[in-house]
Design a protein that fits this description.
single chain; alpha/beta; 17 helices; 24% strand; seven-stranded parallel β-sheet
C-alpha cells in the first residue's frame, strides 16, 4: 500500500509549464497556503513552471500578497479564469495592463464547471450572466484587450436565450483537508467549509492530471469513517502536511474556531452588538425585508451586518441564512471568517449550493453595491480603476426571488452622526455611487424588471425601489434634506412621488421589535370597523408586502374582522406609502378576490403612487375585478357615500360601482 505523503517542494516539482492549475479557498478561508507558497518559491528560484493558467472561484487571499496573491510574478501566469481578482491585486494589475489574459466569470458558473470537467462534458448551459458584462453581446467576461478566445457563447434552446460556458480541462488541483490517511482519503472535520474539493479533484484526475492535498495531519490507515471521507484516496496523488502549522490556519484571522467547523455550538447571546452607525442603519433597514421561514443570502460588507442585527433582534431562529460557500443556517460570520457560520445546520459543497441558488431556492439576498445608475443597473465588479470581479454576485442577484442592494450613499470618508433619532451628514464621501451609467453591468435593472423581480436599494439616508421608469425614491431618513443630502450627490434625478420617512426605530439605539414586524403580529391594529356605517377601514400606509405569507397574514386579519362583524362589509383601503413586491401583485389580487367572494359587500382603495395604481389595476383586471384605484382618499370616500373626511353623507348608501363581480 503506497504512502502518498511527500514534501510541498516535491509536489510542486511535478507541475509543468503551461499546466492549468485550480485551487480551493473562499475569501480568507480554507486556502492551501503551503502549496501556494511552495509554487511561488519554486518559480522565484528556478523560473519554472511558466505560463500557467489559474482557475479559481472566489478570491483566495488576504489582498496583501497571500493565497493566490503569491502568483503575481511575471511569467508565472499566462491566463487567469476567476470570479474574483480583488484578493490578488497584483495579478489583477497584470490583467489590466494586458500582461496576462483574463476572464471574470460568475463564481457559481466556475464552481459548476468543475463538475462538467469531471464528467468529461464540453461545458455548461446557464442563464446566469445574461444582460451583464459576461454576456457576449457586451464583454463576454473578458477583462482586457489581449484576451481574444471566446469561452462564453449566446445560444438559443427551445426559444429561450442561454449562455454556454466552455469547460477548460484541468491539469493540477490544489485542495485542502484536515486529515489524510496514507492512501490519501481526506476528511474535513476542522475545516469551516468543504467548497469544491471533490469536484476539483475529479476534474484533474479524470484529465490524467495531478491532485495535491494540503492537510493538517496524517492519521492511521483505515481510521477515517467512510461517510467522513470527503475526497476518496483514489483521486489524490500527493499529500502535503502544512509546515509550519500556521500555513493551515482556518482563515487568515483565525487559527481555529470550533464553532465554525461545527465541532461545538456556542451561545449566540454572547455575540457582540454592532454600534449604531451608518453600517448598522443600513443593516437594520435591510433586515426589515427578511422573509420568515425563508432562505437568505448575505453578501460581504454592509450586508453581512444583517446577520448581526437578526441575532440581536432574536429573529435568527425564524430565518435560514446561507452563504454561497456552502453554509446553511446558524449565525453567519463576518470579517476574515466570511462565508462560514457559527452553529450552522449544515455545510454543503459550494457547487451544490449554487445549484440551489440558480434554481430559485433563495427567497432574499442582500448584496453590496459599488455603483448604481438610473436604470437600476449595479456594478460591483470593475469600478474606480480597479478590477475586483463579480464573485457569486451574478448567480445570486439574478436568481434570488427578491434583492436588496445595501451600501452607504457615497464612498470614501463618509461620516455621519445620529442625534435625537435624526441622521446628520458630518462629512460627505468623496465618491458618488449613484451615477448616470455604471462602468460595468454586474446586475441588470431592466432584466430584473422584465422578470418582475422585486429590487430595492438601501442606504443610510434613503431607500430606492426599482420601477419600470427606473429608480424611485421611496424612503428618506429623518433629518435628511432631499435636495441637499440626496439629489446633490447623484448624477441623475430619480423618480420622486411621495417618499415615506424611514422607520424612526432605525435611528434609536434600542431593540426595534423586528420580529413583531416580520411576523405581522400587530397587523390587526391597521384594521378598524365602524359598525354604524358598516365600513371596514384598512390602513396599509407604510406597510410592505414582501412575501406571500404577508398576504396570507393580511387575509386572515381581514377575514377575522369581517366574521366578527357578522355580515358583508364595505371596505376602504389606504395603500398610500404601501409597497407590494413586484412579483406579488397577482397574489394580492387573489386575496382581494377571496374577500369579495366571502366577506366584502363593496371595496374601494386609494394611493398617490401612480406605479402602484397601474400595477394594481392590471392585477385586478386579470381576475375580472373592478380595476379602479383612486388617487386620493376623498375620491375613495365619495365612491362609497362618504364625505371627504370619511363621515357619512346624509341619507347615502355605499355605492355599487366598485363592488367587483362578487358585489352584493
Amino acid at each position: 500500500m503506497k504512502d502518498k505523503t511527500i514534501k510541498a517542494d516535491e509536489a510542486i516539482a511535478l507541475i509543468r509549464d503551461n499546466d492549468v492549475v485550480t485551487t480551493t479557498g473562499f475569501v480568507q478561508s480554507c486556502i492551501p497556503e503551503a502549496l501556494h507558497a511552495a509554487l511561488e518559491k519554486r518559480y522565484v528560484e528556478t523560473g519554472a513552471p511558466r505560463d500557467l493558467t489559474l482557475i479559481m472561484c472566489a478570491g483566495a487571499g488576504d489582498s496583501k500578497g497571500l493565497g493566490t496573491g503569491r502568483l503575481h510574478h511575471e511569467g508565472l501566469l499566462r491566463r487567469v479564469i476567476a470570479a474574483n481578482f480583488g484578493r490578488m491585486p497584483k495579478v489583477a494589475e497584470a490583467a489590466q495592463e494586458n500582461r496576462i489574459c483574463g476572464y471574470n466569470l460568475p463564481q457559481g458558473v466556475i464552481s459548476q464547471l468543475y463538475r462538467a470537467c469531471a464528467a468529461g462534458q464540453p461545458g455548461l448551459f446557464s442563464k446566469v450572466g445574461l444582460h451583464t458584462y459576461v454576456d457576449p453581446r457586451l464583454d463576454g467576461g473578458k477583462v482586457n484587450d489581449v484576451t481574444e478566445e471566446d469561452i462564453v457563447k449566446l445560444v438559443e434552446v427551445e426559444g429561450e436565450e442561454w449562455l454556454f460556458y466552455k469547460a477548460t480541462k484541468i491539469d493540477v488541483a490544489f485542495i485542502r483537508a484536515t486529515s489524510a490517511d496514507p492512501s490519501g482519503n481526506l476528511s474535513m472535520e476542522k475545516e469551516a467549509l468543504t467548497l469544491d474539493s471533490l469536484a476539483q479533484a475529479m476534474a484533474a484526475y479524470n484529465n490524467h492530471g495531478l491532485v495535491v492535498a494540503q492537510v493538517e495531519r496524517i492519521v492511521e490507515q483505515g481510521s477515517l469513517k467512510p461517510k467522513d471521507v470527503k475526497v476518496p484516496g483514489i483521486l489524490v496523488d500527493c499529500i502535503v502536511v502544512a509546515d509550519p502549522p500556521e500555513m493551515h490556519r482556518m482563515n487568515y484571522g483565525v487559527i481555529y474556531d470550533p464553532a465554525l467547523s461545527g465541532e461545538i455550538r456556542v451561545p449566540v447571546d454572547a455575540m457582540p452588538k454592532m454600534p449604531l452607525d451608518a453600517r448598522k442603519i443600513i443593516a437594520r433597514r435591510a433586515a426589515f425585508e427578511l422573509p420568515p421561514n425563508g432562505a437568505v443570502n448575505l453578501g460581504v460588507g454592509a450586508p453581512d451586518g444583517v446577520a448581526s442585527v437578526a441575532n440581536e433582534e432574536k429573529v435568527t431562529p425564524y430565518i435560514t441564512l446561507t452563504t454561497e460557500a456552502g453554509a446553511v443556517g446558524g449565525v453567519l460570520a463576518g470579517g476574515s471568517s466570511f462565508g462560514s457560520s457559527a452553529n450552522a445546520h449544515a455545510i454543503i459543497d459550494q457547487n451544490t449550493m449554487f445549484d440551489f441558488y440558480d434554481g430559485g431556492g433563495l427567497d432574499l439576498t442582500c448584496l453590496g453595491m459599488a455603483e448604481c445608475d438610473e436604470q437600476g443597473n449595479v456594478n460591483t465588479s470593475r469600478f474606480g480603476g480597479r478590477l475586483n470581479g463579480c464573485g457569486g454576485f451574478i448567480n445570486i442577484s439574478q436568481n434570488s426571488r427578491a434583492v436588496v442592494f445595501a451600501g452607504t450613499f457615497t464612498a470614501g470618508g463618509l461620516k455621519v452622526e445620529i442625534e435625537d433619532g435624526k441622521l446628520k451628514i458630518v462629512q460627505e464621501g468623496r465618491a458618488k455611487k449613484f451615477v448616470k451609467q455604471v462602468d460595468q453591468i454586474t446586475f441588470s435593472g431592466p432584466f430584473a424588471q422584465q422578470r418582475s423581480q422585486p429590487v430595492i436599494y438601501v442606504t443610510e439616508r434613503c431607500v430606492f425601489q426599482l420601477t419600470p421608469e427606473g429608480l424611485e425614491l421611496i424612503e428618506v431618513a429623518p433629518g435628511i434634506d432631499i435636495e441637499r443630502d440626496i439629489l446633490a450627490h447623484m448624477d441623475f434625478v430619480p423618480v420622486i412621488l411621495k417618499p415615506m420617512p424611514m422607520d424612526h426605530r432605525l435611528f434609536i439605539d434600542e431593540p426595534m421589535e423586528l420580529l413583531s414586524d416580520l411576523m405581522n403580529l400587530k397587523l390587526w391594529e391597521r384594521v378598524s370597523y365602524d359598525e354604524d356605517r358598516n365600513i371596514l377601514f384598512l390602513n396599509l400606509e407604510g406597510w410592505n408586502v414582501r412575501k406571500k405569507s404577508d398576504i396570507d397574514d393580511l387575509q386572515k386579519v381581514l377575514s377575522d374582522a369581517c366574521e366578527k362583524a357578522g355580515k358583508r362589509v364595505n371596505a376602504v383601503v389606504n395603500h398610500d406609502g404601501c409597497r407590494i413586491a413586484e412579483d406579488l401583485y397577482d397574489d394580492y389580487a387573489a386575496m382581494i378576490e377571496h374577500m369579495m367572494q366571502h366577506h366584502y359587500a363593496s371595496t374601494t382603495r386609494y394611493t398617490t403612487s401612480a406605479f402602484m395604481r397601474l400595477k394594481m389595476q392590471e392585477a385586478l383586471s386579470k381576475r375580472g375585478l373592478a380595476p379602479h384605484v383612486f388617487e386620493k382618499a376623498s375620491e375613495a370616500h365619495k365612491a362609497i357615500g362618504l364625505e371627504d373626511d370619511g363621515t357619512a353623507k346624509p341619507g347615502s348608501q355605499p355605492a355599487e360601482a366598485h363592488m367587483g363581480k362578487y358585489g352584493r
